[in-house]
Amino acid sequence: MAQDVPDEAPLSESTQASVAQAAPGLAEARELTAESAKAFLDEFFADPTTDPYYTGASVAIIKDGEVLAESGYGLADAEQEAAVDPQETLFRVASVSKTFTAVAIMQLVEQGLIELGGDIRDYLPELEFDNTTGMPVTVADLLLHLSGLEVRDPKPTDLHPDLDRVVEIEDVVMSRMPDVVREPGSAYMYDNFGYQMLGLIVQEVSGERFEDYVQTHIFEPLGMDSSTFVLTDQALEQLATGYDPAGNPLEPYAVTPTVMPEGGMLSTAGDMTRFMLAFLGEGELDGQRVLSEASVREMEQYRAYVHELLPDTTYGFEAPMQLPGAGSSDAIVTKAGDLIGFSSYLVLLPEEETGFFLTYNQQGVLRNLFYPAFMAAFFPEYAAPAALDDFTPQAAGELDKFTGYYADLRLRPFVTQLTPGEGDGTLTIADAFLGARQLQQVDDNLFVDELTGQFTGFRLDEMGEPTYMKEPYLNPLGYAVKGEAAAGFADVSADDPYAAFIHALQSLGYYPNDNEAMFGPEVAVSRAEYVQRLLAVSMVQPSASSELAFADLEGHPLAGYVQAAYELGMVQGSGDARFEPDRPVQRQEAAVMVWRLLQAQYPNELFADVALAGETAAWAEPAVRMMVALGLYGPEVELDGQGAADYRSRVAMNREQLAALLYRILTQPTDQIVAAQQSAQQAAPEADPGEAAPGEDAPGEAATSQDAPREAQEPATDGAPAEEQLQTPAEASPAAPASAGQGPDEQAPDAQDAA
């Protein structure tokens, strides 16, 4: 897609410098041998920077049909001081299970029992779901995460301590079956449920239970003697203890369904060695064939790209993580896996006849350190900056088509905003996690991030208009969909101070996109409506509990949301078993509900120096200070001449104010704000008493969110209204996917709190 324009530098000097700085050192490759592999592993795990990211780890490396290393590091159980044994210690490999589910499908394809292009209804005729696209969902669509099905991620309760409970695959699939919400094959959304369906297809077509099929047709032929999808007593004895990020041990848990095709496999590094040898051996090991050579080739081939530097998926694998300046190589297939207490990474380089498998008993980013280090040491050519064609960046006006809001298909609260950049060929990209940064265009639909040298790509329709974005940070395993241009509301004028917030949420699909509809900007928000709106932008579903915490919720249409908020610890009621769902919510009550979800992440002492004006109840002051410091408010909050904020705490919140709050929750870079606040507090004692401390407001001056934010910034409008990881859901907090039962334990500061 790049234009052939001689003598044009593909990147600006600043971008070339950032790419060169970010890319791993491209030293001469070390020969990969048993000796060099062991030396690399010993060096890597001896490096103190890796210590926080694992308690125990097991790793295997193969090349040219030979096992170069099978090593254990750290402890499988810290309390027992049990070392990791690469042959005996089992780990939950989580979504690496999907590769084995794909192998089972490909075996049945070889036997003529399944067609990759076949409609899934042909194999699961009892499925009931709506599909108005006119295109069937195929087996290949499920394998490639292109089904178009509405997201159905595991529920928090799908991981539970009852090791004797049995839940069948078909019961979960039939009870949770989603509808098709976009054309199958059109967009990449990482899909756990799709692989659960594939496991059910294996079971139905083969006539064998899924776990028995995999045991008989994959594990046994390959000599993977410890691997299993069933948590037997023997497996429990061999299973490493999982640890949380703080190093605390986790109790053993079972999964739902009990046999989970998308993420329930347990294995050892030694067993995974045998799988890698078989796959890179054209599907055969020690005379036992589990795949034909043709099936192996099929599983290695990427079938969906945003750009040639950004492949998506193959049958059973996904693209490797980007290397700065190099993108993702389609000569490498990988599969990552995460479950509570465990992470894994399977990497295969077929052209090099090389593979490695890394697994560890602490969910986290150890693999993000291991992969680039391994590639830089042994295959630096894959980390070399991409040889981009010469390209003339488009003028600023031509890039306007990319601007707007994008929401992740799987994790909808992950919102990205693109606005015009600082010159031709540039865009500004911003999100709540990294803040704002510049993108420079290097191809028609490809931009390089000047912060890290990684690529962001766009899928363009037949008219050249962007429909989806793929970026490397928030969720590289899927696309974000571009929001529609906001139509506006009949009662919200373009110059209304809240219009930009309202239109942004309209573009993202949180409000109806109908310019004849009435928004009711000054209508007071009820307590139940507030809870529902806040949980909806955080992907929290209504509680299914039949026992309600408040007597006055019986029969209320939003009772499920209020109950979910109660289970999260977000609301406590009025002290007499009533919630008063239809009473207008005071702004200070609304603040306390958010504060209860965030106070474990952001302790009160961070905001103790935030000055408040107006009247705020004592029980709400910590919450209001936090909201002001994080910029979680709209134009209704003003600073006085001394920098004190009047939050209008005792006033009822109305719909336009709620829109501003929801927008802030989705877009405000709160972690960066808190980091700036901490820096300011640390610097304050050393500051000249006559000067404002770094990051603080001087009297009469308003800070921006990049300093010590006390004044929320407006959405970028350019003079017009704003237009348009098996990974379980994250812990509950506004702007992140949340789940009932995972809220902070802290209580409100006073029982008088009516929130």
TrEMBL record:
Chain segments carrying region Disordered: 1-22, 676-755
Gene Ontology molecular function: hydrolase activity
Domain named SLH: residues: 545-608
Gene3D superfamilies linked: DD-peptidase/beta-lactamase superfamily (3.40.710.10)
Pfam families assigned to the protein according to its UniProt record, in alphabetical order: Beta-lactamase (PF00144), SLH (PF00395)
Bias (Low complexity): 676-703, 729-755
Residues annotated as signal peptide: none
Keywords for the protein's UniProt record, in alphabetical order: Hydrolase
InterPro entries linked: AmpC-like, Beta-lactam-related, Beta-lactam/transpept-like, SLH_dom
PANTHER family: BETA-LACTAMASE-RELATED DOMAIN-CONTAINING PROTEIN, D-ALANYL-D-ALANINE-CARBOXYPEPTIDASE/ENDOPEPTIDASE AMPH
Protein name in the entry: Serine hydrolase
Organism the protein comes from: Paenibacillus sabuli
